[in-house]
Every structure is written in C-alpha cells, then in structure tokens.
Predict the structure.
Amino acid sequence: QVQLVESGGGLVQPGGSLRLSCAASGFTFDDYAIGWFRQGPGKEREVVSCIRTGDGMRYYADSVKGRFTVSRDNAKNTVYLQMNSLKPEDTAVYYCAATLLFCPIDYGSYDYWGQGTHVTVSS
C-alpha cells in the first residue's frame, strides 16, 4: 500500500540544523512531486517546500528561503529537507506529501500524506 514515512525530527536549539527524510513506497515515486508542509501549534498547515520530478524544480516558502534545502533521491524513493539556522517559529509537525501536479502550494492538491515528524526549536 502507499506509504510516506517521515523521520529526522527532534529537539534542536535555535541556530541548529536538522535533516528530515521522507521515504516513499507503494506508488511510482518518479512520477510525483513531493511537498513538505508544516503545522505549528494553533496554526494552519502551510507549505514549506516542494520538489518536482523530471526537471527537479524546487519551491520554497519565503519564510524558509536561504535556510532550507529540499532534495530527492529517486533511486532510494526518498526526499530530504535540510533545515539550517532553525528558529523557534519553525517549531511544528512536518509532513511530506505526494502529488502528480507541479508543486501546488495548497495542501488539498496532494494525494498521499505521511504521519508527520515533530520539530521543536527551543533553548
């Protein structure tokens, strides 16, 4: 069956780094763009980043540009989100999701979702 499994979350101090992974199975990974979303306490779910297949086009929300980097390894069916210079406002549950569309920013356009991984940025 379709699975997206996030890992790599945890507690980190402000200014620190984490690398999230999203391992996919049960569908043709190469055909799908993979997005990263997050939902902070009391906040709406928001898009963080997305990477397309084919041309590898990347999208970043303004709040993470220059700090986060998304990449994918199609041989491993895995997408990564490298997060540097983390801030307390980055605290959230991070989700990866798959879509056949070209990196839409609305979460309703994604077909498959992982269960999420918690990221806490605090001193």
Notes: The mean pLDDT is 95. The two ends are 40 Å apart (CA to CA). The chain has no helices and eleven strands. The longest strand covers residues 18-25.
